[in-house]
Amino acid sequence: xxxxxxxxxxxxxxxxxxxxxxxxxxxxxxxxxxxxxxxxxxxxxxxxxxxxxxxxxxxxxxxxxxxxxxxxxxxxxxxxxxxxxxxxxxxxxxxxxxxxxxxxxxxxxxxxxxxxxxxxxxxxxxxxxxxxxxxxxxxxxxxxxxxxxxxxxxxxxxxxxxxxxxxxxxxxxxxxxxxxxxxxxxxxxxxxxxxxxxxxxxxxxxxxxxxxxxxxxxxxxxxxxxxxxxxxxxxxxxxxxxxxxxxxxxxxxxxxxxxxxxxxxxxxxxxxxxxxxxxxxxxxxxxxxxxxxxxxxxxxxxxxxxxxxxxxxxxxxxxxxxxxxxxxxxxxxxxxxxxxxxxxxxxxxxxxxxxxxxxxxxxxxxxxxxxxxxxxxxxxxxxxxxxxxxxxxxxxxxxxxxxxxxxxxxxxxxxxxxxxxxxxxxxxxxxxxxxxxxxxxxxxxxxxxxxxxxxxxxxxxxxxxxxxxxxxxxxxxxxxxxxxxxxxxxxxxxxxxxxxxxxxxxxxxxxxxxxxxxxxxxxxxxxxxxxxxxxxxxxxx
Amino acid sequence: xxxxxxxxxxxxxxxxxxxxxxxxxxxxxxxxxxxxxxxxxxxxxxxxxxxxxxxxxxxxxxxxxxxxxxxxxxxxxxxxxxxxxxxxxxxxxxxxxxxxxxxxxxxxxxxxxxxxxxxxxxxxxxxxxxxxxxxxxxxxxxxxxxxxxxxxxxxxxxxxxxxxxxxxxxxxxxxxxxxxxxxxxxxxxxxxxxxxxxxxxxxxxxxxxxxxxxxxxxxxxxxxxxxxxxxxxxxxxxxxxxxxxxxxxxxxxxxxxxxxxxxxxxxxxxxxxxxxxxxxxxxxxxxxxxxxxxxxxxxxx
Lengths: 541, 301
Prior knowledge:
The complex is a heterodimer. By secondary structure, chain A is of the alpha+beta class. Helices cover 33% and strands 21% of the residues of chain A. Chain A has helices at 2-24, 27-41, 68-77, 126-137, 143-149, 182-186, 196-202, 253-262, 276-280, 311-320, 323-328, 359-368, 392-404, 417-425, 444-451, 470-481, 485-502, and strands at residues 48-53, 82-84, 91-93, 96-101, 107-112, 160-167, 170-175, 216-222, 226-231, 244-249, 267-268, 285-289, 294-300, 334-336, 375-382, 408-415, 431-437, 505-511, 514-518, 521-522, 538-539. Chain A is globular and about 70 Å long. Chain B is mainly α. Chain B has 14 helices and no strands. In chain B, helix 5 (91-127) packs antiparallel against helix 6 (129-144), helix 9 runs antiparallel to helix 12 and helix 13 packs antiparallel against helix 14.
């Protein structure tokens, strides 16, 4: 048995050497071979796009989740009343063709398309929109609804007072207060309209049997392995150019990249930054950059008794981490962040000066707060890459080492994505990594969701620093109800200054997430909001 | 090979008697061990390992946890003998300090298996009957689990840390010791000198500790040596899965896991820790096999 064991080790070692040499060797042969395989596979004429990613979707009901991997798929299956333009966050018609707000901004009327059917064959009417909004407004589970419309356990409807079907193809919304980003918000993929019949039929299990009106029809879900969607021939917009899209979950960055090189997947996210140069040198592969509208950060739980409750300590941590060095781990796909807002978004406060790297000052601040001897603290991180943070574990180790300089002893806790999210939403962490990709191109979607006290609720927190500042809250609320963009800008600039001073976060970086694809993938335009329908994308055989 | 029973408290002559008896066995075994070339290779590797661990601060060229992010993924060179990892840490120094952790894992994990395993095997073999049934069926249950799976389950319960990984690996190793000791005890307890000890009224505990166990030493030593290799391998596996050593500890399995991302661009980040694990486990296995051959009385010419 023992002999077997070390024979096993030998075999393993040889296998390892083989893998290494195969990868550094001539790539031409291997890709040709797999190319042939592909051709025979596709002899039926079906165009299949295989998309590799690091984590599986959590649920395929967009009203139950906030994570990018779920939204990525639901964006194929569902339509929203309005959608974003392919290359900006300007709004264009989708299920609704026209819309008119009233003078006071309290009533919105939408004209709907009359030629849309759900994937289950039922017809789409104004009643279905009303059904969806009523479903969302009667459940506290729709976290995004709470984020965007200020709903809470006590007030499930939030600022939406009523939704009425004023004719078969006309819907009227009545709001309790004006909401500047309202139209932008309705274009967010989480507000996809589901088939009422399917929702009622499947009940609790609806998230496994999603029915929408989108360009792709849900076909199969093998948890932690793959999700398959097929082309919707009846789609009212541009019908998809590929016949089938398979979303495959491959947790390891390196393994996923090898599959891309060998041709068994066509596209992937979660690229190790250092693999970018390999792609540049490979004529079969290409990098497609997603426009930047995100932020990664380390939140400090201000709610927990202890050092992080002190403003000076949080500022000291901001001073003690060398951000330039930390962001150099992003290998050129990230720029250091100083604000919660990305610079590409209006309202970004460029006058704010970042804390900078200053150990001496950090020590002084710590001494002032009574922690001259430092303290022990935990840092929660996650195991799979996110678009805004390609290497969470390595980044955590870098911060661990940097904070040692000021006697802060960091223990790293690594969890998988699911666990990390629920852990941080429940406020069980001291410090935690997280990031955010803008959903609707409005600063409200960053500042209100991530830093307002309304969203610092244990259990569904978007504000995982549990930062509660009434002044900031008043500014953000005022900006929501103000319709004039210039005045809103002023309010956001001021809010960012207060947030900077209180330092609930250590902002890390804004990235331009790279998507690696085979050269045969064409017409793919990644959207800055982090996901997009694949109906325009094509694949050359 | 057998010891003379000692009815009286130790006297001077008793001491010399005790010591002089086992010498031929060890002497002979040592000779045979040196003659076996593979065992010698094992000994050399283990000696080197221990020396490296003791002299780590002298041998290492850098502090094993010092990061130099600007110089990450440097290829092996004169400044960085085995290159640098994803955070610009010197891989050579990390491997050198990693020897301390590996030895620690080997000794503590095997220590746990040995103490508990010998105790369980000893009472099962000596007392027999229902105690034997109870203990050995329990051991059978433990052996029904694949060892790494059981270690993972244990760490999942205890929480991931190097200490808990050692405990888990130690527990997983108990059945081997228990079985070996039990079978040895079963044959030894039939010997005349045990009967003699019983007849002059020695208590069970005394017989077991003074007369039975000393005669099981050979198989225990062999199992312990082989067990160290297995323990290091299992602990590296746990660390690779993130269940063992936590960052920034320079544990070899954790280094392998952290370096995976760069396997295409910087293969040295995984190659060298992998090689280190391979060599050390090989060393203990060769030495253990050599010991087994050397201590096996059936091989006497």
